[in-house]
Amino acid sequence: MQATPATLSATIDLPPAARSVPAARRVLAELLTTWAAERYRDDASLLVSELVTNVVRHVAGGSNMVLEVHLSEPGLRICVVDASATRPTRREPGAGEPGGHGMRLVAAVADRWGSEAHQSGKRVWFELRDADPAGVGTA
To answer: Quick check: 58 and 86 in contact, CB under 8 A?
Structure first.
């Protein structure tokens, strides 16, 4: 009988405020270190920054957002849940526009991403998968 690998999960409530962007990155980095999954840190931190920033910029109201982090054999899945039902879209920003690149970046870096209805809002998620699930490269 083969053992099934464990799934590690964490859920963190964050206010929809600018200070939550670096807080989400710090918490994520600590989780990934604790879970011995540092290989995801750079890409996951970048994408979490984008998703949390989108909530701070585009979701009105005082409801907290929720950061969900799940690590299992196929890889890392991170979700950001907020109170807005408006789904994110990839758009082509105009020349010189400071924003509008977030979801294009998520689509370019993540192995998969999407959004789904969640209670009265939505959940936006991305996945980073191991090319080599054992974490060992070949020579």
So the answer is: yes
3-class state of residue 25 by DSSP: helix
Smallest Cα–Cα separation from 36: which of 11, 5, 9, 71?
71
Q: Which two structure tokens, joined as six digits, stand for 66?
A: 């929720």
pLDDT score recorded for residue 137:
41
pLDDT in the model for residue 132: 55
pLDDT at 94: 55
Model confidence pLDDT, tens digit, residues 13-25: 999 999 999 999 9
Check residues 90 and 80 and name the one with the higher pLDDT.
80
CA distance 93 to 108: 15
Which residues share a beta bridge with 42?
none
Domains observed in the chain: 8-89+101-129 (3.30.565.10)
Amino acid at 8: L
Alpha-carbon span 26 to 138, nearest angstrom: 32
Q: How far is CA 84 from CA 2, 63, 136, in A?
A: 43, 10, 41
Helix axes 20-34, 41-58, angle to 10 degrees: 150
